[in-house]
Design a protein that fits this description.
By secondary structure, the protein is an alpha/beta fold. It has 2 domains: 3-184 and 348-425, Alpha-Beta Complex (Quinone Oxidoreductase, Chain A, domain 1); 192-343, NAD(P)-binding Rossmann-like Domain (Rossmann fold, 3-Layer(aba) Sandwich). The protein has 12 helices and 21 strands. The strands form 5 sheets. Strands 3, 5, 6, 9, 10, 19, 20 and 21 form an 8-stranded mixed sheet that branches. It has a 6-stranded parallel sheet with strand order 15-14-13-16-17-18, with helices on both faces.
């Protein structure tokens, strides 16, 4: 039996006494370390999972900056109780708590929704004021994260219904890990809302999602902007305009998405900011766009882009603005007479993750388009430095059980490439 076949075989699952994990013991990069830790033993209402693949999320930088003051830490003393990072990943169960037998079994594969809408159940004394007023916890913060070889699935995750079975057990590990960032895009597009009337005397009906047959503009062609453009094709707008100042990003959009757009009957246009206004005017006969997705967190860019909205248009403030530069002016006359709307979202719910897993399994989006690099657990800190320096255009996928010497950039990633990598590098 090959090393990869053993890795995939539930009967061959073995759990060591220790594991490696990326931990944070305070604010700042100096508090980051890949450490050897005991593998946790699940309680009667807990599960132990092997982490098969993990992504490195930009949100970790906010935790590095804020330390114990982060809202999900809420005073948690990280020096006494370091946290295991990682809010994106794919897992396989290896141990089942006594009270959960029959519901779960070793070898089952899952994704984990990291934002858990449940008050702390474990270690309430570690939070400020014994967790009084807390209604939410998060994986990769005070709950064990994916940047480790094994992770504890606690009562909070199960109570929040955040452990999600896969629609297809054959899904590549990286595809499952990519479901979390893609689900944020899925969730955001589900916030778009358009009012419809079948005839002048019928009642108005609200329909979620981008306007079918409408004109969509995506501002920002980084990885998240490209995800937006690809998922937007599900709604069959007549055209999608993607704008970015960097030609290499526009070229990546064309290279990765042009064939899918053609197959969907959607015109895909890639333009610079200087071309954007004229392109929107030409495509809309001067009316403006129906759906505007702001996938860049720059105040000036977002402010100017609001002028692109047509009557009844919806702007999605997807790219978060930094505090102190987070105020936009809205034309109240246009809101009143043209019924333009602004929406936003932050992350998703278990339903968004489940729908995203289905979308990936049904090839509605190719997660391999958004993998920037692959490596092992030892590369996690390097990746975070690259993210801080804005040198990452996509997601780094790390394989905690593989011994990989070098973080390798990729143009695209597939299940076949993943299998070849793991066959050669599994410990």
């Amino acid at each position: 039996m090959t090393s990869l076949a053993r890795f995939r075989d539930p009967a061959a699952l073995t759990v060591p006494r220790t594991m490696r994990a990326l931990t944070l013991s305070g604010a700042g990069f100096d508090s980051l370390a890949v450490r050897e830790l005991p593998v946790p033993e699940p309680g009667p209402d807990q599960l132990l999972a092997r982490v098969d693949a993990a992504g490195v999320c930009t949100s970790i930088l906010k935790l590095l900056a804020q330390g114990s003051e982060h809202k999900f830490l809420n005073g948690w003393d990280m020096q006494r109780h370091p946290v295991i990072l990682g809010d994106e990943g794919a897992v396989t169960l290896v141990k089942v708590g006594a009270n959960l037998t029959g519901r779960f079994a070793p070898g089952q594969r899952y994704a984990v929704q990291p934002a858990v809408d449940v008050a702390p159940i474990n270690h309430r004394q570690r939070y400020r004021d014994n967790a009084r007023g807390m209604s939410k916890v998060a994986v990769g913060y005070t709950l064990h994260g994916h940047l480790a070889q094994y992770m504890l699935i606690t009562e909070e995750v199960l109570a929040g219904r955040c452990l999600l079975p896969l629609p297809d057990e054959a899904m590549p590990y990286f595809s499952v890990s990519m479901a979390e960032p893609i689900s944020c895009v899925y969730s955001a597009q589900d916030r778009q809302v358009h009012l419809h009337k079948a005839d002048p005397f019928s009642p108005r009906a609200a329909k979620l999602g981008l306007l079918e047959g409408g004109l969509t503009a995506v501002i920002g062609a980084g990885a998240m902007g490209r995800m937006h453009a690809e998922l937007a094709m599900r709604y069959r707008p007549r055209a999608i305009i993607v704008s970015d100042p960097l030609e290499q990003r526009l070229a990546a959009t064309r290279d990765k998405l042009a064939a899918r757009a053609e197959a969907a009957g959607v015109r895909l246009l890639t333009v610079t900011p200087q071309q954007l206004g004229d392109t929107v005017a030409a495509e809309s006969d001067g009316l403006g766009v129906d759906d505007l997705i702001l996938a860049v967190g720059v105040q000036k860019v977002q402010q100017q882009a609001l002028d692109l909205l047509g009557p009844g248009g919806v702007a999605n403030l997807f790219g978060g603005l930094p505090r102190g530069q987070h105020t936009l002016e809205v034309d109240a006359i246009r809101v009143h007479y043209e019924e333009i709307k602004l929406v936003g979202s932050s992350g998703g719910a278990p339903s968004d993750m489940a729908a995203t897993l289905d979308a990936i399994a049904q090839d509605q989006i190719d997660p391999g388009n958004y993998v920037y690099a692959v490596g092992g657990l030892d590369h996690a800190i390097e990746v975070l430095h690259l993210i801080e320096q804005n040198r990452v255009d996509g997601k780094a996928i790390l394989y905690p059980h593989a011994r990989i010497d070098t973080l390798t950039n990729v143009e695209h990633w597939s299940g076949q490439q993943e299998a070849q990598l793991l066959e050669s590098h599994l410990a």
